Amino acid sequence: MPVGERLTTGQRYAVEESIRKAELASRAEFSVYVGPVDGSDPHAFATQLHNTLVAPARSIMIVVDPERRLLEIVTGGWVRRTLSDAEATLAAETMRSSFAQGDLVGGLRAGIALLAGHI
Predict the structure, then answer these.
(1) What span, in angstroms and rounded, lies between the C-alpha atoms of 77 and 97?
(2) Gene3D superfamilies from the entry (predicted)?
(3) Residue 78 lies in a domain
(4) Which phi and psi (to 5°) does residue 31 adopt?
(5) Global pTM?
(6) Ordered strands of the 29-34 beta sheet
(7) Which among 40, 64, 75, 108 is least surrounded, fewest beta carbons within 10 Å?
């Protein structure tokens, strides 16, 4: 989980703890990237990161570029069998709401929990 320099050690730990819980509950793999998104197509950037994961079919990649206010969620084929686009959109909106209030970690934790709960 590359989280860049935006999160403190404690914040990284909190996000990693949420990921561990989500993975145990859902049997999917979660990855989070917080940092600059290269290029003009954030979805392509997120998809490229997702494709480098060990098990992309069973994975969810959450990409956040706080500077550009970008959020992308990419899911693998196994995940999409039980996670609908509407459920992923709900998780994204939950995260965006927290991000808008300046709570990056809280938004990530809430979004990860929602995604895991729908899988």
Answers:
(1) 27
(2) 3.10.310.50
(3) yes
(4) -135, 145
(5) 0.93
(6) 29-34, 59-65, 70-75
(7) 40
